[in-house]
Design brief:
The complex is a heterodimer. Chain A contains two helices and six strands. Helix content of chain A is about 25%, strand content about 35%. Chain A has a three-stranded mixed beta sheet with strand order 2-1-6, covered by helices on one side. Chain A has a three-stranded antiparallel beta sheet with strand order 4-3-5, with no helix packed on it. In chain A, helix 1 crosses helix 2. By secondary structure, chain A is α+β, with helices and mostly antiparallel strands. Helices cover about 35% and strands about 20% of the residues of chain B. Chain B contains eight helices and eight strands; from the N terminus they run βαβαβαβαββααβαβα. The chains are: A alpha+beta, B alpha/beta. The interface between A and B is large, with 37 and 35 residues.
Chain lengths: ~110, ~220
């Protein structure tokens, strides 16, 4: 998996914004991950502990917030949350579906000490 | 006192995506078309590229190939060079996917202005390559029938982001228990109306249809 590249990006974004705000230390980092974006929390945490050392993000807590994936049926327009990996429309059974949301992969905010 | 919560809302892979945009502009400026070719190891990526090169030999189409591998081998790029087209080998050093920076460096090593088509052969993997944009025009996946008919169900993310699906090794269908309806139903749920070509790089069956699609894209550039 590619958790190392992802963790490096998180560190880069957090450090950049903290420095811009002239913060002394970053204490918390809030990530928003859609259900369709695959990422292994434990693996990110593992890399985080290693690569955040000696940066202003050292010991910052990572918070993962998951967002459900919302699909829409192209035949009957029903919107529904994805629960299994592949799920036909629960209303009419159609397999013609489109993803409305669920691929979020954002660093939402950080908390800092000034 | 200043607020201690700083709102950011930045895509974690934004840095990669920005470089991918630059890559795309470079390829566009050079007037070339480009594809990101993904598949499992052994699905026939290199054979498919060679079939494409050989079929276009008489068409005066200049093709550059970027070969991604996790190990420092040049097996694939040697085959491309033997077929008479320029190839750049990227060794990812164990990394499971190509990213936009690697493509940026590889583009430096190709004479872009003389190329009509750039094919990027991604690392054999159905998970990670789906997450990293490279800056190519289309995402193409090869799914070969010996891998089984359940692949869309097991690796949904890579199917969602596709522009073209190639079903390879169809000459083996009589010998395998591959339920094409089940496979296609899974694909349809992930990517309705996806452009699909069934081919065999061994017998050349179906390659013509893929080529017509490709030639149309190249001539528009």
């Amino acid at each position: 998996m590619h958790e190392l590249s992802v963790t490096e990006s998180v560190l880069e974004i957090a450090c950049r914004h903290a420095q811009k705000a002239k913060a002394k230390k970053v204490t918390d980092i809030y990530l928003l991950i859609g259900r369709l974006s695959s990422i292994v929390d434990d693996s990110v945490q593992f890399y985080w502990d290693v690569i955040s050392k000696d940066t202003i993000c050292e010991e910052a807590n990572l918070h993962f917030k998951r967002e459900p994936a919302v699909l829409v049926c192209l035949d009957c327009q029903t919107e529904y949350n994805l629960e299994d990996e592949l799920m036909p429309c629960p209303h009419c059974g159609s397999a013609k579906i489109r993803v409305l949301s669920g691929d979020e992969f954002n660093l939402e905010s950080i908390e800092v000490e000034r | 006192m200043a607020e201690n919560r700083i709102k950011i809302v930045e895509n974690i892979l934004n840095a990669n995506d920005q470089i991918a945009l630059k890559n795309k502009k470079r390829i566009d400026d050079a007037g070339a078309y480009s594809i990101n070719l993904m598949a499992s190891p052994g699905a026939g990526k290199t054979s498919f590229i060679l079939s494409t090169i050989n079929a276009l030999l008489d068409e005066n189409v200049q093709i550059g190939v970027i070969e991604g591998d996790t190990a420092p081998v040049t097996i694939d790029s040697d085959k491309i060079s033997e077929a008479g087209m320029p190839a750049v080998q990227i060794n990812t050093g164990g990394q499971c996917h190509l990213d936009a920076v690697m493509i940026e460096n590889a583009l430096d090593q190709l004479s872009l202005e003389i190329l009509d088509l750039i094919i990027v052969e991604n690392v054999g993997n159905l998970i990670c390559p789906a997450a990293f944009k490279l800056g190519t025009h289309s995402n193409v996946l090869i799914s070969s029938v010996p891998e089984g008919d359940d692949k869309p169900y097991k690796y949904p993310n890579i199917y969602r982001g596709l522009d073209v699906l190639i079903i390879n090794k169809i000459d083996l269908l009589p010998y395998l228990e591959f339920d094409m309806d089940y496979f296609r139903k899974g694909v349809e749920m992930l990517n309705p109306g996806l452009q699909t070509f069934s081919v065999s790089c061994k017998t050349n069956e179906g390659i013509e249809n893929w080529l017509s699609w490709l030639k149309m894209r190249i001539s528009k550039k």
